[in-house]
Specification:
Blueprint (H helix, E strand, L loop, with lengths): L1 H10 L8 H25 L5 H26 L10 H23 L4 H28 L5 H25 L8 H26 L7 H16 L19 H11 L1 H12 L6 H38 L9 H18 L3 E8 L2 H8 L1 H16 L7 E6 L2 E7 L3 H13 L7 E7 L6 H17 L4 E4 L4 E4 L4 E3 L3
Parallel strand pairs: 4-5
Antiparallel strand pairs: 1-3, 1-4, 2-3, 5-6, 6-7
Length: 480
């Protein structure tokens, strides 16, 4: 569609203006785009069609305005501006804005506060020069009457709103990665460029041709977006709800924040010291508050990232329980407290039985799930002050502060009872003797674990000349 339509749209200015071929080309592209868009909506069946219907209604009103404008100027030979065509042109803007707004709300779900503030910063920065060099001069210009003044002001105001929605749409997470969304953004840019250029040219008293191609491209790009196979994805929530401060985004925000002083300088130089202080002051204050809000959100992101990094540094990525590093730190602290206070302390090593066989039979994803389920089930049997950590592979370590040997053995048996998927484990326990180092204590627990595995698995061995407890509940006196 674009392969055929874009060359025709770009060639339109070379047709003799006001002739039937030119009118047929211009209105024909508009009507064809509306029909194609309707076909796209009916064929793709988006989950929320209202947003697309609003865009279609806005396009249909604009195309109708084109036909009315053409008739008034080239058939009735009356001045079409302001006139009946504006009754169709002006409502097309709110409909387009409403459609884009619904898509943005659907994609962000109201969660993307960072993107919203970035869009407000850019929009405020653009609104300031728009007011100073565009809207305000129009309001102070000569007008044929109140209707002429209101219509002349309505177009730039609506264009500023459309700029805001376009910027917001472009800054939503994942927006530029979706082709239909890119087409919609390009469509609004194609609409805004001739709108702004036409208004500025009128202020300067200059005639500019080739603007009609921009409005035709708007029709074609919007229709192409509606016909795209992924058009229904435009209204779906984005997979990512957080925006990162990339260098291009930071550069754009910096330029936007500097527009206020730039406008102040430009007015002082080119308007002979006549500066619109109120507009510049309000715009600068709003930009300052938005930048402060942006910094606050950025600091919040940094704090969350720091907490996540800390969690990743101390927690196992698969099971969520503390990792080997956290185990070493906690064990050394507990040993220090036990030495000072003379408290009892038990260290245990737990190893799932025949884990490799389980992986070979059911696959590694099932093995990972078993580790996660085991860690969750065992954690539920421990106190908050007890520690369960993933030591490595299918091996876990426990630190039981303030527990005696018999109590620690009973706790391990509770863990055995909730071992998921009918699996079993072997365990080795070592009671702190009050003097040994962490490595020595862990080494004793590890030796007890290997003795449990060597004597049949599914049992607990304590390295203190105590009892061996078999999985079936039988206890055998055994010196280790």
């Amino acid at each position: 569609m674009l392969v055929v339509g874009v060359p025709i749209a770009l060639s339109y200015p070379w047709l003799p203006y006001g002739t039937p071929p030119a009118s047929l080309c211009f209105e024909g592209i508009g009507v064809a785009s509306c029909v194609i868009m309707l076909v796209g909506i009916r064929r793709r069946r988006p989950e929320r069609p209202l947003m697309w219907c609003l865009l279609l209604a806005g396009m249909a009103l604009s195309v109708t305005g084109d036909a009315v404008y053409d008739y008034l100027e080239n058939v009735a030979h009356v001045d079409p501006y302001p006139g009946w065509a504006d009754l169709f042109y002006l409502p097309s803007y709110p409909l387009s804005i409403a459609g884009l707004g619904m898509m943005i709300l659907r994609r962000t779900g109201g969660r993307d506060r960072v993107g919203m503030i970035d869009a407000l910063i850019l929009s405020t920065a653009l609104a300031l020069p728009a007011w100073s060099f565009w809207v305000r001069p129009i309001s102070l210009g000569d007008h044929a009457g109140l209707a002429d003044q209101l219509v002349s002001l309505a177009y730039p105001v609506l264009d500023v709103l459309l700029i805001t929605l376009t910027v917001r749409s472009a800054t939503t997470p994942g927006a530029l990665g979706l082709r239909p969304n890119r087409l919609l953004i390009l469509a609004q840019i194609a609409r805004l460029l001739p709108d702004v250029t036409y208004s500025i040219a009128q202020l300067a008293g200059v005639e500019i041709s080739y603007l009609d191609s921009g409005w035709l491209l708007t029709y074609l790009l919007t229709a192409a977006a509606a016909l795209h196979p992924r058009m229904a994805d435009v209204g779906k929530p984005a997979t990512s709800d957080e925006v990162t401060l990339t260098m291009p985004r930071l550069t754009l925000l910096t330029v936007a924040s500097l527009l206020a002083p730039a406008i102040l300088a430009a007015q002082g130089v080119f308007q002979h010291g006549r500066v619109d202080w109120s507009a510049v002051a309000v715009g600068s204050a709003v930009l300052f508050l938005l930048v402060v809000a942006r910094m606050k959100l950025l600091l919040g992101q940094m704090h969350r990232l720091a907490r996540q990094m800390e969690s990743l540094a101390h927690n196992d990525g698969l099971t969520g329980v503390p990792n080997r590093r956290a185990w070493d730190d906690r064990l050394n602290r507990e040993l220090a407290k036990a030495r000072r206070g003379g408290h009892s302390l038990v260290v245990g090593m737990i190893d799932l039985d025949f884990f490799k066989k389980f992986n070979d039979e059911y696959g590694h994803p099932a093995g990972d799930l078993l580790l996660k389920e085991a860690a969750a089930a065992w954690t539920g049997q421990l106190r908050d002050e007890d520690l369960l950590a993933r030591y490595g592979g299918e091996e876990f370590g426990i630190v039981l502060a303030g527990r005696g040997g018999d109590e620690a053995t009973a706790i391990v048996e509770r863990l055995r009872a909730v071992c998921p998927r009918g699996q079993t484990f072997s365990a080795g326990l070592a009671v702190f003797d009050g003097a040994e180092t962490a490595d020595e204590l862990v080494s004793r627990a590890d030796r007890a674990l290997y003795r449990a595995k060597a004597t049949g698995r599914d049992r607990t061995v304590r390295d203190d000349h105590q009892t061996l407890t078999a999985g079936g509940g039988d206890q055998v006196s055994m010196a280790v």
